[in-house]
């Protein structure tokens, strides 16, 4: 029942508060009597309520329990790993952000698939490479390689372009891992 009546009631309450606030601002009270004092109090209450409502909207909904549990489990897994010999580079961070931006279903598929950054893209004339079988035919070890040298060569002049192309390349190679061939991946716009 809350789902059915909640949004219309919230919209009506917000409209009433905004209307009162506009009225208060366009016709300010003179404080000459009880009516003006009540108008001032109503206007102050409207400002407080609108501010509280905007704050709760900006905070957003609570994270669902399965997503929170997945985040905790992933954090614990990462914490159990030994620290890397060197900190991730800026390019590594772009790849990590692209992987974190994938839908949870795809992230689960990649839990056992290494994603490697390499500087051998010029040899393959590629931005990325998927090696292995697909999810359906898992006959070879899987690996996704993202080529830093070719991506930075072609898109490094613009950080936004580089970030977008790294994300596109990661999605392209994940699509290969999920079973799409090159024409199929290109038909997805990747």
Provide structural commentary.
The chain has 190 residues and is mainly α. The chain folds into 2 domains: 2-59; 87-187, Zincin-like (2-Layer Sandwich), CATH 3.30.2010.20. Helices cover 64% and strands 7% of the residues. It contains 9 helices and 3 strands; from the N terminus they run H-H-H-H-H-E-H-E-E-H-H-H. It has helices spanning 2-26, 34-59, 65-80, 90-100, 104-109, 121-124, 148-155, 159-177, 182-187; strands spanning 115-118, 128-131, 143-147. A 3-stranded mixed sheet has the order 1-3-2. Helix 1 (2-26) packs across helix 2 (34-59). The longest helix has 26 residues, at 34-59. It is elongated, with a radius of gyration of 27 Å. The two termini are 43 Å apart. The model has no long low-confidence stretch (mean pLDDT 79).
């Amino acid at each position: 029942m809350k789902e059915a009546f909640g949004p219309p009631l919230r919209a009506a309450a917000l409209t009433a508060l905004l209307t009162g606030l506009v009225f208060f601002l366009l016709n300010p009270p003179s404080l000459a009597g009880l009516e003006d004092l009540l108008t001032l109090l109503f206007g102050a209450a409207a400002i407080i309520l609108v501010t509280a409502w905007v704050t709760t909207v900006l905070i957003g909904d609570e994270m669902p329990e399965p997503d929170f549990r997945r985040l905790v489990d992933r954090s614990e897994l990462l914490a159990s790993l030994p620290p890397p010999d060197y900190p991730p580079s800026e390019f590594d961070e772009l790849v990590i952000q692209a992987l974190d931006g994938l839908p949870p279903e795809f992230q689960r598929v990649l839990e056992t698939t290494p994603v490697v950054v390499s500087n051998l893209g010029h040899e393959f004339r590629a931005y990325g490479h998927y090696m292995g079988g697909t999810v359906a035919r898992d006959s070879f070890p899987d690996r996704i390689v993202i080529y830093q040298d070719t991506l930075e060569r072609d898109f490094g002049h613009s950080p936004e372009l580089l970030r977008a192309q790294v994300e596109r390349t990661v999605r392209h190679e994940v699509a290969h891992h999920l079973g799409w061939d090159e024409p199929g991946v290109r038909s997805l716009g990747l």
